[in-house]
Amino acid sequence: MSTEVEKFIELEKKDNELRTRKIRLEEQLKSKKQALKDLIEEIKAAGYDASDLQKLRETKKQEAKDKLNKYESDLVKLSEELSKIER
Prior knowledge:
By secondary structure, the chain is mainly α.
């Protein structure tokens, strides 16, 4: 009989420990969700819209490619001009 009582006490301790851990994890989750909401609001306040981020990324990527191509073109022209002068 005492082993059953001891087992019950141990199980009750384990139950309490798990409930405490669960409460702690729920609080952490709540805190992280709030931090995420705050971050989303900060991003929106900065003028970014999550639905437009992919479009913005593609636009910036294309702008970078265009600038790189222009830079290459300018270098080719400059090289040609220098070659003409050197002749």
